[in-house]
Structure formats: structure tokens, C-alpha cells
């Protein structure tokens, strides 16, 4: 068995084949779970596909506009 200071408690029952693992939560673990929930919500499923398409379109237009402005000033007639 592990000590309680590690945050994970493992116990094995002798009369059954199931193991029981319990974890104590800390503020750092809560932050990780919050970030994990946000990631799961925004990056998976139909909403994730929409976010990736919008992000790709936004990136395309930013690169297009920067290229247009740069090309204008580079090839500008004097």
C-alpha cells in the first residue's frame, strides 16, 4: 500500500478480483481537470470540427492579407 502523502490510495480486496484506486484532488489537479474539460469541449466532436475550420480560415486570411501588404510595398513602383 502507498502512503497517504502521495495523494493516491491503492487497496486490494482479498475476497474479490476488483482493485480499488482512489485519488485525492489538489488545486493543481482541479486546474488540470478544468483545462481538460475545456479541451474536450472545444476540440472534439462537431464543435471541435467547427473550431478547426474557423481557425484554419482565420489563419488563411491573416497570411493572405500580410502577403498582399508585403507584396504591395515590395513591388511598388517608384
Automatic annotation (TrEMBL):
Keywords: Membrane, Transmembrane, Transmembrane helix. The chain crosses the membrane at residues 49-74. Residues 1-21 are annotated as: Disordered. The keyword ATP-binding does not apply. GO terms for cellular component: cell surface; plasma membrane. GO terms for molecular function: protein homodimerization activity. This is Small integral membrane protein 1. It comes from Nannospalax galili (Northern Israeli blind subterranean mole rat). Residues 11-21 have a biased composition (Basic and acidic residues). Signal peptide: none annotated. It holds the Pfam family DUF4731.
Amino acid at each position: 500500500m502507498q502512503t497517504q502523502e502521495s495523494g493516491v490510495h491503492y487497496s486490494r480486496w482479498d475476497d474479490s478480483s476488483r482493485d480499488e484506486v482512489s485519488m485525492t484532488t489538489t488545486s493543481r489537479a482541479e486546474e488540470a481537470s478544468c483545462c481538460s474539460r475545456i479541451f474536450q469541449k472545444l476540440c472534439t466532436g462537431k464543435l471541435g470540427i467547427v473550431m478547426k475550420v474557423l481557425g484554419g480560415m482565420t489563419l488563411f486570411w491573416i497570411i493572405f492579407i500580410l502577403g498582399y501588404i508585403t507584396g504591395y510595398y515590395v513591388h511598388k513602383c517608384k
